[in-house]
Amino acid sequence: MKKIFIDGGAGTTGLRIKERLSSRDDLTVITLPEDKRKETEYRKQCINEADIAVLCLPDDAARQAVSLIDNPDTVIIDTSTAHRTDAAFTYGFPEIKGFREKIRNSKRIANPGCHASGFISLIFPLIAAGVLKNNIELSCFSLTGYSGGGKKMIAEYESAERSSEFNAPRLYGLSQNHKHLPEMMTVCGLAYAPAFCPIVADYYSGMEVTVPLFKSQTDVGIKDIKKIYSDYYKDGLVYFKENEQSLLSACELSGFDDMQITVEGNEERILLVSRFDNLGKGASGAAIQNINICLGIDEDKGLRRSYD
Known about the structure:
This protein has two domains: 2-112 and 282-295, NAD(P)-binding Rossmann-like Domain (Rossmann fold), CATH 3.40.50.720; 114-278, Dihydrodipicolinate Reductase, domain 2. The protein has nine helices and 13 strands. The strands form two sheets. It has a seven-stranded mixed beta sheet. It has a six-stranded parallel beta sheet with strand order 2-1-3-4-6-5, sandwiched between helices. It is globular and about 60 Å long. The protein is an alpha/beta fold.
């Protein structure tokens, strides 16, 4: 039976991964006593004992955890930002053509960021199809539930004494130096970072990432773009779906682990939209999908699809 160790299992992502894996009968989750979970000696032992070690740590701690590995067979899945643009790590988005096989054969996998997952799912297929140039200047609007901010933000939003400012959506990443921008650029091969507008709102989970395009930015129309997505996303947990609603809710896929791509607008102004759960395909669900691929089993085992 394969062994999984979650280093940093007390955070939001780590807790959800541990909870999801606890009911699995095909693997064992290695756990440390509470008083040992931050001690390097015991963490090192568990990392090297595991078939797969999932790092749910701050960036510096994730780098330190990687340095503790002696076992050449241990697979690392890092959910932090530390290794997402590191050439020694495979980017863990299996729906990108060619990435699934790389993940299956890799010992070092970087789990994607939540905002980045939505952006990359929209832009990568269009760059690959040649309908967008890599020197295009884009903007991206991304709406997320407050659980994406981790334990501290969850406590702030759910506090009975919270400030009235939490009642309305809040724009952050104001300096245009958001930590997900490097992977958005690197994975898509973009020459310029998008103007990125992340917003956190007063609901628990769910994400809606929107990238607008003008007619002048591409030679194809809205129907062509829909077909590109429909043809591109045939396997995995990302799918294209025609929208029949007049409104698109950011929490539509809350509680699910897949991602829905839609295209709105008209021939002059096109809206590319990706919707998913920031805790699902944007975090723990993506990590479990990558665990399953590394184990050579159905990649959606233990995951929940919105259209099942």
